[in-house]
Specification:
The complex is a heterodimer of chains A (295) and B (240). Chain A is an alpha+beta fold. Helices cover 46% and strands 20% of the residues of chain A. In chain A, β5 and β6 form a beta hairpin. In chain A, α4 packs antiparallel against α5. With 240 residues, chain B is α+β, with helices and mostly antiparallel strands. In chain B, strands 12-1-2-13-14 form a five-stranded antiparallel beta sheet, with helices on one face. A five-stranded antiparallel beta sheet of chain B has the order 5-8-9-10-11, covered by helices on one side. Chain B has a two-stranded antiparallel ribbon with strand order 3-4. In chain B, a hairpin with a 2-residue loop joins β3 and β4. In chain B, α3 packs antiparallel against α4. Classes of the chains: A alpha+beta (295), B alpha+beta (240). Chains A and B meet through α2 of A and α2 of B. Chain B: This is Proteasome subunit beta. Chain B: It is found in: Cytoplasm; Nucleus. Chain B: InterPro entries: Ntn_hydrolases_N, Proteasome_beta2, Proteasome_sua/b, Proteasome_suB-type. Chain B: One of its GO terms (biological process) is proteasomal protein catabolic process.
Chain lengths: 295, 240
């Protein structure tokens, strides 16, 4: 899990009209011509891609670990070779699952099911001796008619999660505590200081509970964002996301936000079109169109 | 000699099947329900989470009609499909759409076709909250077609022409049931062996309903199609 934190960052944002994902591009040398994106893969027409990664799995006794202690450039190459292959296996597996589902039901596979299947596969490599787990963590962006746009994150252990707002629950909890304290203070004041009949206190109590539910409903309606980051400096990226995300983001705003965060997570100070992928995922009428383009 | 037909109306789909179980020249049973619900519970409401966190109820229900060639195939196959759907629901926490169920069924028939074929023809009627009512025609050779009106077996000879004439797009339920009566009457007129009892199942946004229809006792010359010739060559069902 720690090793995963060291690879280049990927982050995804769900907004009203689609999903934006950006990833850092590794460029080893100017002579190297990337044939395809090693960070993004298309699973099906609706689940687009899983984004991949991460390398540098450290073993106590393997050759990989010895190499990783050496120069950074060399380790990266080795690591990418090793891990991109892990990722390819998983991508193939997911594509196969998606295609099988489509053959059987003539319908696109639900996003969560696809993630679930792949995670089950990943998990089996953590359970038995002699097998090396996949050194890959992924972000999945997908769309289905039931749930709309979805963003999932899965890691080498086979856990996966769908990204929703975290501080929303904290807010609700705080409001709840405030209500409770308020009620108890009221009871104390009324009973011991003013001496009012208890049924009035009960009424106040009910009011407080009503207040709590109103707050809850308001929160449920307004609080809703889905965004996450994986890779190097993922935590700082997540904290920026928490501050800057709001549900009214437009496509341009979202791209801008992604790029801004990606810049902050990278080691090198400058970010240009050579160094990142931007992926935009949106539905086109009945079918879904996905575009790869560079900025 | 089984008769099974169905059509799609405005916000509902219905299927009709006769209730007789014949073997050779003998009728073994008169009250056999040949229509199986693909989901046992009626009118289940499925909740889906939307992006704005509001729960939206959604009815997702269908009937599944299976016409027999042999009784064993019908029971066997319908249970097989039912259990598979249930398993899918338990495993994935979501329900298949009618489209997916039809293709799944077809796939199963096609897989079995070359080894131990199921001798079943079926009509699948269903209602999806988004897609509306639908009717699928599947035969024992695993051909699948989404249709507005369909009939299986010998009754197709007469009923398809009747549908062409009387079926209209977006028929309401009242007109639909009139058409069903017309069909039953026609079957009773034309076939050597009369089918006495029919079961009609309707699926719409509220779930499924069942209506049983008796073949009309009195023969009346209401419809142009069924007008009898001047000289009575054949006996009407009431004489039997």
């Amino acid at each position: 899990m720690e090793a995963i934190q060291k690879a280049g960052a990927c982050l995804g944002i769900v907004f009203k009209d689609g999903i934006i994902m950006v990833g850092e591009k590794n460029i080893q040398s100017k002579l190297w011509i990337p044939e395809r994106s090693e960070k993004f893969a298309k699973i099906d027409s609706h689940i687009v891609l899983s984004v991949i990664y991460f390398l540098r799995y450290k073993y106590d006794h393997s050759k990989v670990s010895t190499l990783s202690i050496k120069k950074k450039q060399i380790t990266l190459k080795v690591a990418i070779a090793g891990v991109t292959s892990d990722a390819n296996i998983l991508v193939d597996n997911a594509q196969l699952n998606a295609a099988r589902y489509k053959y059987k039901y003539q319908e696109s596979i639900p996003v969560e099911m696809c993630v679930h299947d792949t995670c089950n596969y990943t998990q089996s490599f953590t359970q038995f001796g002699g097998l090396r787990p996949f050194g890959v963590s992924m972000l999945w962006a997908g769309y289905d008619t039931e749930e709309g746009f979805q963003l999932f994150h899965s890691d080498p252990s086979g856990n996966y999660g769908m990204f929703k707002q975290i501080h929303f629950f904290i807010c609700v909890y705080i409001i709840y505590i405030i209500c409770v304290i308020y009620v108890y203070v009221c009871m104390y004041v009324y009973i011991f200081l003013i001496n009012i009949r208890p049924n009035i206190i009960l009424a106040i109590n009910n009011l407080m509970i009503a207040f709590f539910f109103v707050c809850l409903i308001i929160l449920l309606d307004t609080a809703e964002w889905q965004a996450t980051a994986i890779g190097s400096n993922a935590k700082s990226a997540q904290s920026i996301l928490k501050e800057d995300y709001n549900e009214k983001l437009t496509k341009d705003d979202a791209i801008e936000l992604c790029i801004k965060i990606l810049t902050k997570t990278m080691d090198s100070p400058s970010l240009d079109s050579e160094k990142c992928y931007v992926f935009f995922f949106k539905p086109l009428k009945k079918n879904l169109l996905n575009n790869f383009y560079k900025i | 000699m089984d008769a099974a037909f169905g059509f799609v109306g405005k916000d509902y789909a219905l299927v009709v099947c006769d209730c007789a179980v014949p073997r050779s020249i003998v009728v073994m049973k008169q009250f056999e329900d040949k229509i199986a619900a693909a989901r046992k519970k009626r009118g289940i409401t499925q909740y889906t989470r939307k992006q704005n966190n509001i729960l939206i109820g959604k009815v997702f229900e269908l009937i599944f009609l299976i016409e027999i060639w042999a009784n064993k195939y019908r029971n066997n196959f319908s249970e097989y499909i039912q259990r598979n759907l249930k398993w899918y629901e338990m495993r994935n926490g979501r329900k298949l759409s009618n489209h997916a169920i039809a293709h799944f069924t077809r796939n199963e028939l096609a897989t079995a076709l070359r080894s131990s074929p199921y001798m079943v023809n079926l009509l699948q009627a269903g209602y999806d909250a988004k897609a509306g009512p639908c009717l699928y025609y599947i035969d024992y050779l695993a051909s699948l077609q989404k249709v507005d009106k369909a009939a299986h077996g010998y009754c197709a000879f007469f009923l398809l022409s009747l549908f062409d004439r009387h079926w209209k797009k977006d028929m309401n339920l009242e007109d639909g049931l009139k058409l069903v009566d017309m069909c039953i009457k026609q079957l009773n007129n034309r076939f050597l062996i009369n089918m006495k009892k029919f079961v009609v199942k309707i699926v719409d946004k509220d779930g499924t309903r069942e209506i049983s229809r008796e073949a009309p006792r009195e023969h009346k010359d209401e419809d142009v199609e069924m007008k009898e010739p001047e000289n009575k060559l054949h006996r009407s069902p009431s004489d039997v």
